[in-house]
Amino acid sequence: MDKELIKILNELKNVAPDAGYSAKSRNLLLAEINADKRTAPKKFSLADILVAVYSRRPIYVIAATAFALILIVSSSAFYMINKMDRQDFVVKAGEVNNSIQVKLDEIKYLLGSKEIDYNKGVVIQTMLLEATEELKQASEESDSNKSLEKIKSAQETLYKIDALLQNK
Amino acid sequence: MLDGDKNLIERAIGGEAEAFGQLYDKYQSGIYRFIYLKVGLREEAEDLTHQVFLKSWQNISGYNFKGFPFSSWLYSIARNQVIDFYRLKKEIVRIESIAELKTENDSQISLDKKTDLARVKNAILELNDEQQNVIILRFIEDFSISETALALDKSESAIKLLQHRAVKNLKKIIDG
To answer: Do B42 and A18 touch (CB under 8 A)?
Structure first.
C-alpha cells in the first residue's frame, strides 16, 4: 500500500470531537443513567410530574413531559403486549414502541443540547402533551386496533417534534 | 477483552454511572471518528455518537463478554446508527470546509497537510459502506484483521478481500 496514503490515514487518527461537545454529551449520559436509577422502581404518575414542574420554565415542562412519555411508552407497550393475544398485534405494537423509544431518546438529547425559544417551546410542549394523551388513551382503549392507531398517532406527533427541534 | 473493561462493564451493568462514564471516555473518540468519517458532517457525527452511547447504556445488560470485545460491540451499534441515518435522510448536503476538520493537534497542522487530510476524508466518503468500515477500522483505528472481522460480523478472509478492494478504490479515487 502506498506509504503516503498510510501516513495520511494515520494522521486521521487525530480527528477528534470538540471538547465542549464531549463534556456535554458525557454529562447528559450520566444524568440519564442516574435518572434511570432513581425512577426505575417508581410507579409512574403523569399528573405528579406535570404539577411539580408546571410553574417552572417551559423547557423543564417539556423535558418532564418527554420523560413522562418515556414511562408511558414503556407501560403502554407492556399493557398492549399483555392484553393482545394475537401475534401480529404484539409484533406491531413492539415495532411502534421501539420506534417511539428511539425518537424520544433523540428528542431528549436535542432538548438538552439546544437553546429553544419560548414560542417554539410552547408548541413543543403542547405537542408532547398531545402525544402523552394519545398514549394514555391507547392504554385505556379496549379495542386493540384503535389502541394501535392511537399509538401510531403519538408516534407521528413525536416525529413532528423531532423535526421541529432539528429545524427541518 | 481487557480486564479493566470487564470490570467497568460489570459495574456499569450494576448501574454505576461513573463506570459507564469511564467506558465513554475510553471509546468516545474512536466511535466519533468512525461515524464522522462515514457521515462527513461534524454536528451529525456528534449527535449520532451520543445516540450510540445512549443505546449501549440501554442495552449493556445484554452485552456478552464471551469472545466479543466491547469495542467491537460499540462499533456494531455505530454501524447500525449510520445505516439508519442514511436511510432516514433524504438528501445529505455536505458544505463543510477544510476548517471543519478538527484534529487533536489542530494548531500544529499546516494548511497543505489539512488539505491532504480533507482529500482523503472525502475519498473515504466515496467508498461503499463496507469498504469505508474496513479502511477506518484497519488503518485509522488500528484494528487487527480478527478484531475487524468481529466488529463487522464477517470472516477474516472476507475482511482481507474487502481491504484489498477498499485500498485499491481509495487510491483510484484520490488519484482522480
So the answer is: yes
C-alpha cell recorded at residue A72: 408511558
Using a CB–CB cut-off of 8 Å, the residues of B that contact A are: 15, 17-18, 20-21, 24-25, 28-29, 32-33, 36-37, 42, 45-47, 49-51, 53-55, 57, 101-105, 113, 116-117, 120-121, 135, 139-142, 167, 170-171, 174
In a shared domain, residues B65 and B135: no
Q: Are B151 and B119 in contact (CB under 8 A)?
A: no
Tens digits of per-residue pLDDT, B49-62? Answer: 999 999 999 888 88
Q: Which domain holds residue B3?
A: 1-95
Q: How many CB atoms lie within 10 A of CB B14?
A: 9
CB pairs under 8 A between A and B: 101
Which residues have CB under 8 Å from B17's CB, separation 6+? A30, A33, A34, A37
E strand segments, chain B: none
Number of domains in chain B: 2
For B99-119, the pLDDT digits (tens) are: 566 666 666 667 777 788 889
Nearest residue in B to A12, CA atom = B140
Beta strand residue intervals within B4-58, DSSP E: none
Test A2 with B103 for CB contact under 8 angstroms: no
The model's pTM: 0.60
Regarding whether B91 and B14 lie in a shared domain, the answer is yes
Structure ipTM? 0.81
**Cell numbers at B171, concatenated:** 487510491
Cell representation of residue A51: 404539577
- Is the Cβ–Cβ distance between A75 and A131 less than 8 Å? no
